[in-house]
Design goal:
It is a single chain. The termini are far apart. Among the domains are: 110 residues, Phosphorylase Kinase, domain 1 (2-Layer Sandwich), CATH 3.30.200; 176 residues, Transferase(Phosphotransferase), domain 1 (Orthogonal Bundle); 192 residues, no CATH class. The protein is of the alpha+beta class and 835 residues long. The chain is built from 32 helices and 19 strands.
């Protein structure tokens, strides 16, 4: 008996006389001739059975193993498996039982003696030819088919367990790991504990990963490994080549060998008879001309084991169906292949809820030719919307869109926004909002789709054992996705129809404003002539006539004369004109329907020493003020309050500011005729303000900030800072800290310098120490002359005794200009005298 138990010759002295005597005593019916060897499951002896005149192999468990129930169970399992089987290519069992050896019961197995070598020894002694391998494998297929039909799984097929006698007969031996499928009890301890039974290099993937879920197809895989090793002399590990690529083996055998080695057992031969049939068919098939099919085309499939219904979560497939000759179709929740159908489908031709491909159809389809409810593509057709070079849909966006509502370079439709023609407001709004979004989605999705399918192709080429040049080509193609993404991000610019509309609107406003100024020019000249005469001191009669003309104009029904009269009142407020009369005439126009006249009336009333009732009427108008009245109202409140917004004028001013800032934040940059927040903030220049107004100003000063917290000079936040925050008279500590923060801005003059300028003369003594410390830190890191000038002015007021060391450090700097050093020394002397 050879096999796994005869791994190497053992010295004769190892079988002691005591052992031999014990065996002869236990087996009087046998003539023990020699010790064949020892293996994982005991010792094997060659013996002769005189009564039947035959040679047998006597297999005994070692004393240590005989005391272990697990090994006893395995030994019994082998006996039961062999007892079921009676096949010319399976070692036959003659007897099984236990014998008393050395005062211990030891199981034994008496079986057929095979006079020869095992397949491992044959491979080591020069190997086998392809013809010899082809004569052995069909016999092994027959033996396994017979065993499987009798519900016996071997689970340890390997060269050591395949015996070849001197006449070339083949036998499968060592069923110690066999599994009887009709056994009620589960496998013994090793299997129960999840251990892997078998020899790793020859074990099927499921035998390694799920040892309790093994069926007869694991033996098919193991036989495939043995077959591959017989043909190539190597094990199929890692990314292994086809057998024909190793030593010129018949390429017709490649498909058979590779099918037995499929990782997923559903793709292998489903039984040993099918493998034998496939082998016979391959031997009789015509020789292929040129490369083998597996060399010419991809042949790879992956299907996840779990999913929803009959659809797996992921299905990747490349190659043709051998039965139909058509390309295989990927079907799954996520499907990737040449033909793909799924919830998410990526392929050359794809169908899915979300699909990408050269030709794609879906709820959301993207690709070269795309059709769906919504579509993104070079040529796109959408039932609702589409985006592409040529797009057709009710709502179409792109280079040449056709739709009910379309926006693009050359747009065709009912409501259109075209960079080369008409721009309708609704289409412009859709185009400005959606084209950048859809452009990015299209760009990113194309990159993801192309990269994913090409990486899947790279993997398929690798698993299909394609040449490295093919694998490299697929990988290089997969890089087109990121390259396309970078290129598109660098070149993609969406039309800005809104800007075009705004330019047109700006032009219309400009023309309207010019017309208004032209019409007002005569009124200004008329008003100026009245004012000039009203201010004359050398001619009382001329002065009287001018004032009478203004009064008549204010009482006129002609609006142009009313405007001219209202324009004149503020200019004659410093003359000896009767303020009461002119105030009453102006008051009559406060609530005039024409907003321009109402604004002129507000300025006129305020300039003529308004009474308390006038103030009340103006304050009552704040809540209902129109956009064009906000700025005149704010300036009127500034005059009435004498720039003190801490009392009754605080809330009305805050209301005007809040409404105005909403408009300012919404306006478009660069629109010279839009609302100007600088004019609204003008009354706050140098004013005292309430804590509520200050809190809002602090909040608004953060508008348009960059990500790093710095401020730019083009924005609403900058205007708030420049015209209100830095100029207010009664700065709180929060405002001081905000200005000190802005002093760190990279913009030295307009922001950093303005922040220090705004602190001069407007901070309280309690804030001096805070300001001094911040300014010293700033000067330590800045050398700009403007900042130093402003900083030294602040230090001359704020520095205290506790700052002397820091001031001395500034003085000791070698690169410090002498005039700065001199001024710092003076500041240092003053600071020492302050507590």
């Amino acid at each position: 008996m050879a096999g796994a138990l005869q791994t190497a010759p053992l010295p004769a002295q190892a079988a002691t006389e005591d052992m031999a005597e014990d065996i002869r005593t236990a087996f009087p019916q046998l003539e023990i001739h020699e010790w064949l060897g020892a293996g994982g499951m005991g010792r094997v002896f060659k013996a002769r059975q005189p009564t039947l005149d035959r040679w047998v192999a006597l297999k005994l468990l070692s004393p240590e193993q005989a005391r272990d129930p697990e090994w006893t169970e395995r030994f019994t399992r082998e006996a039961r498996a062999l007892a079921r089987l009676n096949h010319p290519h399976i070692v036959q069992v003659h007897d099984f039982g236990s014998a008393n050896l050395g005062a211990q019961e030891q199981p034994y197995l008496m079986m057929e003696y095979v006079d020869g070598v095992n397949l491992r020894q044959a491979l080591q002694n020069g190997g086998l030819t392809a013809q010899e391998a082809l004569s052995i494998v069909p016999k092994l297929c027959d033996a396994l088919q017979y065993a499987h039909e009798h519900d016996v799984l071997h689970r340890d097929i390997k060269p050591e367990n395949i015996l070849i006698d001197t006449e070339g007969r083949v036998k499968i031996a060592d069923f110690g790991l066999a599994k009887l499928r009709d056994e009620i009890q589960p496998d013994f301890t090793l299997t129960q504990s999840g251990a892997k039974l078998g020899t790793l290099a020859y074990m099927a993937p499921e035998q390694v990963e799920r040892p309790q879920d093994v069926d007869h197809r694991a033996d098919i895989y193991s036989l495939g490994v043995v077959f591959y090793e017989m043909l190539t002399g190597e094990l199929p590990l890692g990314r292994f080549p086809n057998p024909s690529e190793c030593n010129g083996t018949d390429p017709r055998l490649d498909a058979v060998v590779l099918r037995t080695l499929e990782k997923q057992r559903e793709k292998r031969f489903q039984n040993a008879a099918e493998m034998k049939s496939g082998l016979e068919n391959a031997r009789t098939a015509p020789m292929p001309v040129g490369p083998t099919p597996s060399w010419n085309e991809l042949n790879y499939e992956y299907r996840s084991e779990s999913g929803i219904g009959s659809w797996p979560w992921l299905h990747i497939v490349f190659g043709k169906d051998p039965l139909t000759g058509k390309m295989k179709r990927a079907r799954g929740i996520v499907a990737i292949g040449v033909h793909a159908t799924g919830v998410l489908a990526l392929g050359v031709i794809s169908f899915g809820l979300i699909s990408w491909g050269v030709f794609s159809v879906g709820l959301l389809a993207s690709g070269v030719l795309a059709a769906g409810i919504g579509s993104l593509g070079v040529l796109s057709l959408g039932l609702v919307g589409s985006y592409g070079v040529f797009a057709v849909a009710p709502v179409a966006l792109g280079v040449t869109p056709i739709g009910y509502l379309s926006a693009g370079v050359t747009a065709i439709g009912r409501d259109v926004a075209s960079t080369t023609g008409t721009v309708e407001p609704q289409a412009a709004a859709w185009g400005d909002y959606w084209m950048p979004i859809l452009g990015r989605i299209h760009t990113y999705w194309n990159a993801v789709g192309l990269t994913t399918i090409m990486l899947a192709g790279t993997w398929a080429a690798w698993r299909s054992r394609k040449p490295r040049s093919h694998i490299a080509l697929f990988f290089v193609l997969s890089l087109l996705g990121p390259f396309n993404l970078l290129l598109s991000r660098a070149t993609l610019t969406a039309p800005r129809f809104g800007e075009q509309l705004r330019r047109e609107e700006n032009t219309r406003r400009q023309e309207k404003r010019r017309a208004e100024w032209a019409s007002l020019d005569k009124l200004r000249k008329l008003s100026q002539s009245w004012v000039t005469e009203a201010c004359r001191t050398d001619s009382p009669s001329a002065r009287g006539k001018a004032l009478l003309a203004i009064q008549e104009a204010l009482a006129s029904s002609q609006m142009d004369l009313v405007r001219a009269g209202l324009l004149s009142i503020p200019k004659i407020s410093q003359t000896s004109a009767d303020k009461k009369t002119f105030r009453e005439l102006a008051r009559a126009h406060l609530n005039f329907a024409d907003v321009d006249i109402s604004n002129l009336a507000i300025s006129a009333v305020v300039s003529m020493e308004p009474e308390s009732t006038d103030v009340d009427r103006i304050l009552a108008m704040v809540d209902n003020a129109k956009e064009s009245q906000l700025i005149p109202m704010a300036h009127a409140l500034g005059t009435l309050s004498h720039r003190d917004f801490t009392g009754r004028y605080a809330d009305p001013m805050l209301s005007l500011l809040e409404r105005g800032m909403v408009i300012a934040k919404a306006k478009t940059r660069g629109d010279s005729y839009a609302f100007d927040e600088r004019m609204l903030l003008g009354p706050l220049w140098g004013a005292r303000i309430s804590p509520e107004i200050e809190a809002k100003i602090l909040e608004w000063s953060h508008l348009d900030e960059l990500d790093d917290g710095t401020m730019t000079t083009a924005g609403v936040g900058y205007n708030v800072f420049y015209h209100a925050l830095s100029t207010q008279a009664n700065k709180s500590e929060a405002t001081v800290r905000r200005l000190l923060q802005l002093a760190q801005n990279p913009d030295i003059t307009n922001i950093a310098g303005r922040s220090l300028w705004g602190l001069r003369g407007t901070i309280q003594p309690a804030q001096h120490s805070l300001v001094a410390e911040a300014v010293i830190r700033l000067l330590e890191n800045r050398s700009t002359a403007y900042l130093w000038e402003q900083g030294l002015e602040l230090l001359s007021t704020c520095a205290r005794a506790q700052h002397t060391d820091a001031l001395q450090a500034l003085i000791d700097r070698e690169a410090l200009p002498e005039d700065y050093r001199t001024r710092l020394k003076s500041i240092l002397q003053t600071a020492r005298q302050r507590s």
